[in-house]
Amino acid sequence: MIAHYGYKDGSGDFFISIDTDKCTQCSDKPCLEACPEKIIELFTDDYDDEVVGIKASERNKIKYTCLTCKSTFGAGHAACIEACLLEAIEHSW
Amino acid sequence: MITAGVDVGNMFTKALLQEGGRVLSYAILASGLDRKRAARETFRQALIKAGVTEDDVCNVFSTGAGQDEVDFAAGTVTDITAAARGTLKIFPMARIVADVGAEGAKVLKTDDDGRVLGFTINEKCAAGTGSFLETMGRALGVQLEELGPLSLEAERAVTINAQCAVFAESEVVSLIHAKVPREVIARSIHEAMAGRVSSMVRRVGLQKKLALIGGVARNKGFAAALEKDLDAKLLIDDEKPEFLCALGAALLAAERDAGQLP
Questions:
Q1: Which domain holds residue B169?
Q2: Least enclosed by CB within 10 Å: which of B57, B126, B219, B261?
């Protein structure tokens, strides 16, 4: 499943997409530690798979929360993307 | 075996009872400030309509924004999974489900077995939700239920450029002052909103077998605008489009009871 967390507003599309089929194959979930803002959480989905997602309280402000991290890694990159060895995480901006 | 689904939305709470896939009753109430109370009262009304008591109900699942506040539910299920299950019960051929509610919209894609392959949610911007239509209707001086039919009378639309409901409202006011006919403005409003929802559909992957659910599915003007934008014929349950998440929760409650779910 591709879970798109985020929003679209007048300034663009801001989505963090997580491929949960790949995510379930990863036991370490290094993205959890890598995210400097700790907006990623671990949970059990409706199919009883342990996957990561973006915290509900953070989904509507990722454009701002991820700003510092993205300014370090560059457009389209972030600490979570670099940490994920299975390339399960993408940012739309 | 009777099971129930209670969908606690931001604006309305819906409860539905089913037995063997047959819908027995459903009820809807405003969620208000006390969602726990709204859930209990909506469930009670559904029981009365079905002519059964709480003891007759084997299992209750809750879903929606306030799913954790339903203290009498034996389990919870996300509104994504509930929407997929409920919609596929009514429209087995649907592969994309667009759920447009009062204060949020979500689009999900399923496989042939009903498993969710992907989803996207908009809970930030009002421009793709029922609240947008409510605000625009107010600006236009038209009741919400009249807005859709009014838009269908127009043969053209003008572009509403604002991406934000607040700015769109001032754009509508400008159109009124520019003497643009009300039906043309109404159609423009629906097309602007359809553009928001169709961009969500394209994000998860456009397919022609698309179902529209949620309270906004009752709005024929919006449905027509979305069909035009996506060039697809929408599958809509005219009787109870806002109850399909509750139906999904009730069906999943039955499957969990029967040991078909983990």
A1: 93-236
A2: B261
